[in-house]
Design goal:
By secondary structure, the protein is mainly beta. It has one domain: Porin (Beta Barrel), CATH 2.40.160. The protein is 8% helix and 48% strand. It has five helices and 21 strands. The chain has helices spanning 5-23, 56-60, 224-228, 369-372, 465-470; strands at 66-80, 100-115, 119-131, 145-161, 164-173, 195-203, 207-216, 241-251, 256-267, 276-286, 292-307, 316-331, 339-347, 357-358, 386-398, 401-411, 418-419, 424-425, 434-448, 452-463, 478-488. The strands form two sheets. It has an 18-stranded antiparallel beta barrel. A two-stranded antiparallel sheet has the order 17-18. A hairpin with a 4-residue loop joins β17 and β18. The longest helix is centred in the N-terminal third of the chain and has 19 residues, at 5-23. It is globular and about 65 Å long.
């Protein structure tokens, strides 16, 4: 980095924060309560031979209809040889970022849940901050959301309908749908997507259906200087951006689900991409089981209108794009429970920057860490203009430790569109499509099961020929590492 200040600051603070949260685990409580990470479903009771986790709700001893829980996460990230280009359209392209970057990312949430016979609801507070980003670093609203309301909604139970029950939810919520590729409550990212509106939910033992209309929450402030200083501004939503849709899930058997969905996005305003997109799709998934094969197939289309960028003079374009992923794996009934998964992802890219069409896939409000590697100050692989196979190995040496190793090839689906994670683009297409190869490793250890988790990992992107050719020989390998501790209370 241009200054050693961030390293001197964040490393001692991270060590202190992890130690403090570990020391806070004493005197386990006799019964668990829901954690923030699993707000919708209470955890199963701990087995008799397992220590029961400490929970704030049991200490407070409130009424039975009210539960309080929370999570504090501290993560130290380090990036060597930044892959992003701040001035990607200059000739030659200009990086504009420091080569190295270190950041301490803190995220704390507290959740209150109320549940009655007919009415229920939730309030969740979120505080997400970063420390260590200097003036040449990368920072945006995915990293900072200081002291704001993540969820505040009311549930109205509407009783039985057919073989199931249904309810209405009104307010602000954070939600996962399907495999989280298009609508997700972000897990690794420091900030979390939220939506204000209404949704109708129906479920029976083998089917569920959700229909919703929302205004996506605008995390504020979003400019670099404010994010760098962790400044506070109340989050808001605007009718200029509306997100709506329906999601149907059918359980075929105890391991297999078939899902159908359609999402709509309507964005207006002169300095936006003025997106009017419709995204239908289907997903077939068979979950893992020892000694059995597993698989996943998801096919998604996208059509409508959009602009190539947010400038007021940018013309409207016809939008026609798509996404596909297929994966197959096997879990061995053996020591360390090895699981091998081979997968392939394809997300369309713009075929010609000079025509009146836009073929680049828009992932809407989806997450990508579970599929494409760490995000945070990394995020080298994105679900747009992508052609990418991966081979992954999962191991579980013990009940509290798991390991993951992956290697992923990264190519562009269209040689004339951008490597969207970096901003680098060759409009002529003469630089080819080979972005590089990403290697990833991760270790997770439940030091105190269901209470204190330690995770460390990293990723390495070995540059491909596209980087050098499109950047006037500025391409280079990039490396990222992190260590993270999470306290659930």
């Amino acid at each position: 980095m241009t200054s050693p200040r961030p390293r001197r600051l964040v490393q001692p603070v991270f060590v202190f924060a992890c130690a403090a949260t570990a020391l806070a685990q004493g005197n386990p409580s006799p019964a668990p309560a829901p954690s923030t990470a699993s707000a919708a479903t209470a955890p199963k009771p701990a087995a008799a031979d397992e220590p029961k986790p400490w929970r704030l709700n049991e200490v407070l001893g409130g009424p039975s209809w009210l539960k309080i829980s929370g999570e504090q996460r501290t993560r130290y990230e380090s990036l060597h040889d930044q892959f992003r280009f701040r001035n990607a359209n200059a000739t030659p392209p200009g990086r504009g970022f420091g080569a190295d970057e270190d950041v301490l990312a803190l995220r704390t949430s507290v959740l209150l849940q109320g549940k009655g016979d007919q009415f229920g609801g939730a309030f969740e507070f979120l505080d997400a901050r970063q420390y260590g980003i200097d003036d040449t670093g990368f920072a945006d609203a995915t990293m900072v959301n200081t002291a704001d309301v993540l969820q505040l909604y009311l549930d109205v139970e509407l009783g039985e309908l057919g073989a199931g029950k249904h309810k209405l939810r009104v307010g602000r919520e954070a939600v996962d749908l399907g495999n989280r590729r298009l609508m997700a409550r972000n897990a690794y990212r420091n900030t979390i997507n939220a939506f204000t509106g209404a949704s109708w939910l129906w479920a029976d033992p083998t089917h569920s259906f959700r229909a919703f209309w929302t205004l996506p929450v605008d995390r504020r402030p979003g400019d670099f200087a404010s994010v760098q200083d962790n400044e506070w501004e109340l989050d808001d939503q605007d009718r200029d951006l509306q997100f709506f849709g329906a999601y149907y899930d059918h359980k075929l058997d105890d391991r297999t689900n078939l899902e159908f969905y359609v999402f709509g996005l309507d964005e207006s305003g002169a300095t936006t991409r003025r997106r009017e997109l419709y995204t239908p799709g289907l997903r077939l998934n068979r979950a893992r089981k020892k000694g059995e094969f597993q698989y996943e197939l998801e096919l998604t289309g996208q059509f409508g209108e959009s602009k190539a960028n947010t400038t007021a003079s940018s013309p409207g374009l016809d939008h026609l794009a798509g996404f596909a992923t297929i994966a197959g794996g096997y879990t061995f009934d053996a020591t360390w429970t090895p699981q091998v998964i081979a997968s392939w992802s394809w997300a369309s890219g713009d075929q010609d920057p000079n025509d009146r069409d836009n073929e680049r896939f828009d992932t809407l409000f989806g997450a990508r860490r579970f599929e494409y590697g760490p995000t945070g100050i990394w995020g080298a692989v994105a679900r747009a203009n992508l052609n990418s196979p991966e081979l992954r190995l999962n191991l579980q040496p013990s009940k509290t430790v798991d390991l993951m190793f992956a290697v992923r090839g990264v190519w562009l689906a269209s040689e004339r569109d951008a490597w969207t994670a970096s901003g680098l683009r060759d409009r002529s297409g003469s630089s080819g499509t080979d972005v590089g190869t990403q290697y990833e490793a991760r270790l997770r250890w439940d030091v105190l099961p269901k209470s204190f988790n330690l995770e460390l990992g990293g990723a390495y992107l070995a540059e491909g020929s596209f980087q050098d050719r499109a950047s006037a020989n500025q391409g280079r390998d990039a490396a990222y590492g992190y260590v993270q501790c999470t306290w659930t209370f």
